[in-house]
Amino acid sequence: MQKKTSKKRTLSRKIQNGIRKIRALKKKVTRSKKKDSANKKAPSSKRKAVKAKPSRSSRKKSQTQPNKFSPDTSFEQTQQEVVEVSKFTAVESSQEEFRRYSLPSRYNDDRIVLVPRDPWWVHTYWDISEGRISEVISGIPVHEREGLSWVLRMHSVTGVRDFNGKNSNSYYDVSINFEANNWYVNVNTPEEEWCAEIGLKTQKGNFFMVARSNIVKTPYFGISDIVDEEWAMPDEEYFKLLGVYNLGNSSLAVKKKRLNEILRKQISSGAFSGGLSSASSLMERKQEKNFFLEVWTELILYGRTRSDATVSVGGKKVKLRDDGTFSLRYALDEGDFRFDVTATSPDETDSITIVPAVKRYTIK
Amino acid sequence: MEKGYLSLVLHAHLPFVRHPEYEEFLEERWFFEALTETYMPLLSVFEGLAKDKVDFQLTMNISPSLCAMMADELLKDRYAGYLDKMIELCDKEVERTRFSPDFHKLALMYYYRFSQTKERFVNKYQRNILREFKHFQDRGSLDIITCGATHGFLPLLSVNKEAVQAQVRMGVESYRKHFGYNPRGIWLPECGYFEGLDKFLKDEGLKYFLTETHGVLFGRPRPKFGVYSSYYTRNRIAVFGRDSESSKSVWSSVEGYPGDYNYREYYRDIGFDLDYDYIRPYISATGVRIFTGIKYYKITGNTVRKEPYILEAAQAKAAEQAGNFMFNREKQIEYLNGIMDRKPVIVAPYDAELFGHWWFEGIDWLNFLIRKIRYDQKTIKLITPSNYLKIYPKNQVINPSPSSWGWKGYYEVWLNGTNDWVYPHLHRACEHMVEAVKRFSSDGDVKKRILNQMARELLLAQSSDWAFMMKTGAFSEYASRPRGH
């Protein structure tokens, strides 16, 4: 009995492992795909034309790969694993569907888009056609075309009207891997407007713009120093309002600095935020991963009588199958148990009682 | 006379999951479980309060995708079927635990809960959950607010203004369809705010929205009353910021109420604990063990050896914590009242599914809290943002700070290495959509229907839930699939 239960548990664990294996394999493919493109060195523009192709074919490969997974997984096939594989056929078919409706891998619309991530970071992605690159290269003086490199030129454009690529407050360049198609840039200034240009830089340091992004502003950080006249309140009073923060007894300037530190820490540690933001996240709480063993026991009580008889266990009537058999299972804790099984004939003239009893204990 | 207000806001949302092409679809269970454990129990609480003539004011967001699921006939049928199956399992559990008194009591509790739920869903509500919520709105106890059409994370969609406009407009339209009037407020998906969003809200006739704490606290110019008052944006939409103190006591996994040792342990579920053959018919059709919602243990402590759950002890704890929460809010309001020249409001928003589903006793906690606030003190009063604005129609004007209530407070949860690949597609798809509408919308019925279907699928793809799941790795395979059929 105990043995059986534990065997079942191993089986189910095996299944879980199987799933994990398959998932891991799938992840590996996507990861190796990513690594592929990451490992590529920023290519010169000429080489790029050739490089674009492998990246496309590697995508194809990763799409066909999943087929390999279901049948030849290494664990031995048992009844339940067959059931398990059938699950994956279901998933495979939806992969099939996925392929049929798959999204285009490229748009070739010569575009770079900028999005803020937080007060200090922006994210950008680009999709540049071969045609556009050739066009830009043809505008580069021939003697400068060797050793071109891809850069992002980050323009600070706060307060700039009609930005034209030349009139930013300041700019700096970030070297990028063109094939990555996207990049996170640490601009490190809250509440500042940014515009990104992607382009080719010559060894002499000349920049040739390939595409220019939209303008974004990084989110605000910290309590504003701007105070509305009509709603003015002395700073000391204001800090009382934030009474939850213990800022000590120092000068106002120190207090302010300390407050900003606390706020930054709180925000980045997620103390402000629930962190749970949709039902699925409720599954997230970490489970204990320590080594453990749990053993439970159940008792199966089964038997048969005439199909029109009435059967009770411990005084409670139980359901008979059409053929007069019955089967009951009970959780079996530690202790002594008796099961008074009584069958009574339909006319209630005959009655038989059998009382199996068990003692369940654990050997120390 | 009260010295200030508490505004409890429940945000109820699930991503739209409906798969008629499969007989049983695992992800639909999210909805069924939330109905059984959160939405219907909330209705019970409201009914009880109304029956006992306890005044209350709550704000609740029922997201458009959740509304759509609640109103969907196929999902209603499936929910009834799901309940039948759960009742069948509970029945077996009552029998199985007969000689094991601690568990037997709990098995009976679940049997009763599921049977009751079925009875109410089918007979009392005639399967119309939305009508029941609307009923409490009509009698002034509940301010139901809307949300983005599919819970799209607006700051990252804002590259296309049409995307933001569609999310907000469809959110308002869906609300009108389900509730019969215009929504006053909106729950911004994930509290995601970006500069300029208020204009879109104004265009759809909305009156207020809520942000994360620093959405208001970091506003420009400095918000005079911190997060303890309403403000207007430049477009005259009212904004309220979340109070971090009251949210921590409920949300925090360390110091929060839900971690009490007497409470039910979420992770010990018979779907994982019981013998495979026995539980097989009640787990996933493919045979993978899943949560069934039947859980017999309490958190017990930081140990793997869990003890049986004791309902009475857990309920006593919930009552005690409701008292503690109320006491802390009273102190907070008294303090704030002393430094503000108006009555402060504490805005405390929570995911509705936290109550009942994750924090099993959360529903009781809420019930105790509302009753205690009504009878056990005089310092605070429950209020909705709409009613606070009636008391204080004149407010300071600020630019709220871009923010969200996700980890790290800004956009990173929905924009990182696991999910940033979706945005190039979403942004382009939206442009194509706008283009297609311009070209074909006057071309007659069939094309219009195709356009509508395109728009629906695009909206579904924009849901922040998928990006979130990719981030956490939970259900990421499902999340990465193309949406709609």
How would you describe the overall organization of this protein?
The complex is a heterodimer of chains A (364) and B (485). Chain A has four domains: 99 residues, no CATH class; 107 residues, Sandwich (Immunoglobulin-like); 38 residues, no CATH class; 63 residues, Immunoglobulin-like (Sandwich), CATH 2.60.40. Chain A is 31% helix and 24% strand. A four-stranded antiparallel beta sheet of chain A has the order 4-3-6-7. A four-stranded antiparallel beta sheet of chain A has the order 10-9-13-14, with no helix packed on it. A three-stranded antiparallel beta sheet of chain A has the order 1-2-5, with no helix packed on it. Chain B is of the alpha/beta class and 485 residues long. Chain B folds into two domains: 388 residues, 7-stranded beta/alpha barrel, CATH 3.20.110; 63 residues, immunoglobulin/albumin-binding domain-like. The model of chain B has no long low-confidence stretch (mean pLDDT 92). Chains A and B meet through helix 1, helix 3, strand 1, strand 2 and helix 5 of A and helix 9, helix 10, helix 12, helix 13 and helix 16 of B.
Strand residue content of chain B: 5-15%
Percentage of β-strand residues of chain A: 15-25%
H-E order of chain A:
HHHEEHEEEEEHHEEEEEEEE
How many strands, what sense, and barrel or not for the largest sheet of chain B? 9 strands, mixed
Shape of chain B: globular
Structural class of chain A comes to alpha+beta
Kindly state the percentage of residues in helix of chain B.
40-55%
Number of helical stretches of at least 4 residues of chain B: 19
Largest interface, with counts of residues having CB < 8 Å to the other chain, equals: A-B, 95 and 94 residues
CATH-defined architecture of the largest domain in chain B: Alpha-Beta Barrel
Mean pLDDT of chain B: 92
| Mean residue pLDDT of chain A | 74
Which CATH class of the largest domain in chain A?
Answer: Mainly Beta
Number of beta strands of chain B: 9
